[in-house]
Task: inverse folding
């Protein structure tokens, strides 16, 4: 997956977790917590959805990398590079 | 082999099941009773639908709210706001002999009532509301949890009558401890009842349960009714599975139990004795009257009335009698703001809850049990009509359920509605793969129970599990 495809995938996951949010206006370098009021339960869901959909494992100590779209895509890029987008 | 075996198909067990099944675990929910719901179940009698526990769903929030327990559970279980179809309360009251306070789903009403009737206490009340906004009740490790709510209130609210009045609804809707309340539980209930408020689906609790079951099954979860767990099989300090009442053995990697702390430990075959002294004591009888008039047509527009017939609120098990009707809760499921397409319920309904002694009810031989149901129903209604219009001549049918009934639905020792007074907030037990959820983990009420299932599933069954 390219960084753009990873971003699209994260948007899809966020759409599941927070269906009432308008994700078109998401700013990539502002934290999810600030823009979407995501809490620790929601972050767990991003991790779990990535594991469910792509078998990507994210250890608990790395959860901090999921703060914003920018840091998330940067963090996931090496892990998802070889995944072919369905 | 299941990834997780869940004991109990109440709100917490089903919610936990949805979380785990959604993330591809093989999950089985085992329920002893022939129906789902636990305390929040429903039944049909004489051609009418009844709810067991539900007066009101607390923690109301309007569609689109981002914070708070209801928003959280809708997100976590991938529901939509419409799935719950909640109608807001019209308004509720706390009625003592010399004072009455009205409250609704906007804290402003209670605040203005207190400013009017208890002007010396309004500053303290506002301060209390502010401290509550910061209280994080989901973390489960708040150091102040076990403080005495009465002590904390004494420091803020100078008038003892107002303290009693504020505590009355909160204890009625979620306090497992006699007389006093843990400050943490007080904060949870204050937010649930006063800051967020009451609502109800038009068709009652079955709407919520059916949604939970449909989602759980749709994700591949298995639900087995009439499947009581008689034993949790333990080998080398780990739970390895359960044995059902009929002898069937089921293996699982971990077990999440909503049966209650003592009730769960008693099932473990590595434990020979459990300390029953720590069981909850508070149980209720519910006296239900079906009326040939809507309550608003005879001048009763309250959703819930919490009454107490003296200035001191007594919250304890009646020791020497079957029931204690000095305090009670009156609820009319008619008095919600249903949509015009829903209309209103076909009959008028008044439900009255009063305190009861489980052991005394259970010791009654059958003919006496039936006679006492009638006698105690009459005593409860007679007490309640001091605080609302007398509806007795409008009654066309009645139903009563007792601590014996509550035990049948919940399997809690003593028919303890809110379980044991000492909660296990982290949900852990003496076994590394046996966890608690539901009433004895700490959260009560429908929203609380669902969140308990979610948070314990997340914490112990998802995060820790290898992929």
Result:
């Amino acid at each position: 997956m390219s960084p753009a495809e990873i971003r699209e995938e994260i948007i899809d996951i966020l759409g599941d977790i927070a269906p009432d949010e308008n994700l078109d206006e998401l700013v990539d370098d502002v934290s999810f917590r600030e823009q979407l009021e995501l809490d620790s339960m929601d972050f767990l869901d991003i991790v779990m959805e990535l594991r469910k959909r792509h078998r990507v494992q994210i250890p608990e100590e790395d959860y901090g990398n999921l703060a914003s779209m920018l840091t998330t895509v940067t963090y996931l890029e090496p892990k998802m590079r070889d995944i072919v987008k369905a | 082999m299941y990834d997780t075996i869940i004991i109990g198909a109440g709100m917490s067990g089903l919610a936990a099941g949805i979380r785990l099944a959604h993330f591809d675990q093989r999950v089985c929910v085992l329920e002893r009773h022939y129906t789902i719901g636990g305390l929040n179940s429903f039944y049909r009698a004489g051609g009418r639908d009844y709810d067991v526990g539900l007066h009101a769903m607390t923690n109301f929030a309007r569609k689109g709210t981002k914070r708070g327990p209801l928003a959280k559970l809708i997100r976590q279980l991938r529901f939509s706001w419409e799935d719950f179809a909640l109608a807001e309360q019209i308004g509720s009251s706390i009625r003592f002999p010399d004072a009455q306070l009205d409250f609704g789903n906007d804290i402003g009403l209670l605040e203005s009532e207190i400013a009017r009737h208890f002007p010396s206490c309004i500053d303290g009340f506002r301060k209390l509301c502010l401290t509550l906004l910061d209280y994080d009740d989901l973390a489960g490790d708040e150091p102040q949890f076990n403080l005495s709510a009465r002590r904390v209130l004494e420091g803020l609210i100078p008038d003892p009558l107002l303290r009693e009045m504020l505590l009355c609804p909160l204890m009625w809707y979620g306090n497992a401890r006699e007389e006093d309340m843990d400050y943490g539980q007080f904060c949870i209930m204050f937010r649930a009842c006063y800051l967020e408020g009451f609502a109800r689906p038009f068709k009652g609790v079955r709407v919520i349960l059916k949604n939970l079951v449909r989602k759980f099954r749709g994700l591949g979860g298995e639900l087995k009714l009439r499947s009581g767990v008689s034993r949790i099989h333990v080998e080398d300090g780990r739970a390895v599975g359960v044995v059902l009442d009929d002898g069937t053995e089921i293996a699982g990697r971990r077990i999440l139990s909503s049966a209650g702390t003592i009730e769960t430990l008693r099932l473990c075959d590595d434990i020979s004795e459990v300390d029953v002294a720590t069981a909850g004591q508070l149980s209720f009888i519910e006296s239900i009257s079906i009326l040939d008039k809507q309550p608003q047509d005879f001048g009763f527009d309250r959703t819930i009335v919490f009454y107490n017939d003296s200035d001191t609120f007594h919250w304890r098990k009646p020791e020497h009698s079957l029931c204690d009707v000095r305090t009670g809760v009156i609820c009319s499921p008619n008095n919600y703001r249903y949509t015009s397409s829903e209309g209103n319920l076909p009959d008028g309904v008044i439900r009255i809850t009063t305190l009861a002694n489980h052991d005394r009810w259970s010791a009654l031989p059958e003919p006496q049990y039936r006679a006492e149901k009638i006698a105690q129903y009459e005593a409860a209604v007679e007490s309640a009509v001091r605080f609302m219009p007398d509806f007795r001549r409008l009654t066309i049918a009645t139903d009563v359920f007792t601590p014996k009934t509550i035990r049948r639905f919940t399997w809690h020792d003593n028919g303890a509605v809110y379980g044991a007074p000492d909660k296990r907030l982290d949900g852990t037990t003496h076994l590394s793969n046996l966890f608690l959820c539901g009433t004895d983990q700490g959260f009560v009420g429908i929203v609380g129970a669902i969140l308990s299932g979610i948070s314990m599933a997340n914490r112990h069954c998802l995060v820790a599990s290898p992929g």
